[in-house]
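It would be a great kindness if you could assist me with a short task in structural biology. The matter concerns a single protein, recorded as an amino acid sequence and a row of backbone structure tokens. The record follows directly beneath this note:
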Amino acid sequence: MITERATTVGLWRWATPPAQAILAKRELGAILRYHRQLHGLSQTVLGTQLGYDKTYISLLENGRRTIPDVASRRRIAEILGLPAHVLGVTDAADTDFAAMLQFGDSTVRLAEIACQSGHATDAVNELWPLAARLEARIADGHTEREVLALLARAWVGLGVALGHILPEERLATAARWTGKGLAIARRLDDGGFHVHALRAHGNELRKAGLHTVAIDRLRRAHSLASAPADRAAALALLARAAGAADRQELFDQAVAHNRRLLDEAPQTPLFNPLALHEIHLRGLVGTGRPAEAARLLDNSPSPGMQTTPLWLIIKRITVGHVLLIQGDRAAAQEHLQEAVSGAGAHRLPHQLQRVLRISSDLPDIHEQAAACLQSLREQLAA
């Protein structure tokens, strides 16, 4: 397994902007010279690595000699950790590489859809082998920028998916995966993905109970976001984290700002009236204002096109909690019963743990949630 330190320090030989500019020229001499400078090698040492003498390396770097045969160029590319096509060699390996990138991109996109539709387990099953394949390629010395970018997306997606299906005591694992993706995202020239990775990592940290660092990540995601949709998503999760941390002023500011964005940003599974209503309800309870939360129940919006099964389950638990605080046990039981059923069907153990925390006065619900959680734990262990 590739460590975060290896990702941030050792895998960037050919992924930095200066390296990309040199690779784009497809000039062997410039590539050799950059490789030497990057690693502090003399022409003699590089010549020994490649099987040439110092004089020949100098001639290659100055453009006074070239290497026309395909086998030698392919060997040099392998030693330098580059795809062969960079040195003008096109073969079946390049076709496989292009197919892997295309397949990987589709896998990540489909996994995101699977998570949103309540099938996070399917997303994990797709992303895990993709990440392993990309890690193996990097471990072999191939650190192309495209591979690193795809690996970052796979790691972030894997962390988000695991954040749905792991119980609370293991949610730090999900945060570690999104953190590994963020470590790469910081170095890529892709502001949108960097914001996405910050947002995902911040949310998984929040779910793992690390509220202070979660708020820091989400604030940064909001400050770096340029698109209204990205700002809205970051603010929604910031409000969630502030409510969980009992940061009332920050929570109120984030909710108010997000409501203003409803007329500006497109609606998504995370940013829509129903999701914001649930975030507002739970945050009011978290910041010690249950009476305000009870009054807000009367203004609950109807589910819309962007409402996912996951959000319906989350909303039912939150509404059930507020109803219990009000003393309406019958209505609370109805909402929590539906939530337990949905959480079991979609394999959402930490949503069941939320139910367990608030249902001590509802023995039937408590027992059903405990039994369902035990069943999910056994499935996960298997």
Observations:
- The chain has 20 helices and no strands.
- The first helix runs from residue 4 to 10.
